[in-house]
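Revision sheet: structure tokens.
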Amino acid sequence: MIDGVKHHPVEGFGMVGQVKAGKMTAEEAEGLLPCMVCGAGSCVGLYTANTMAVVTEVLGMSLTKCATTLAADPLKKQQ
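Predicted:
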């Protein structure tokens, strides 16, 4: 959250275009970067890496809780 406004990582996809179009300054885009990177693990979107990991686990082709355990969870160290 920046200045009371909640931001989502998906907003990062259009930031370069907004800067080039003059709708956002490079400094504003730089300030939003911490909102775009949420932490350890795969991104928050269900894109290729995250989707394939979850599907692989659901199909029983990987260890249980391998894809669905949060990256910062202590259980991840045991895996």
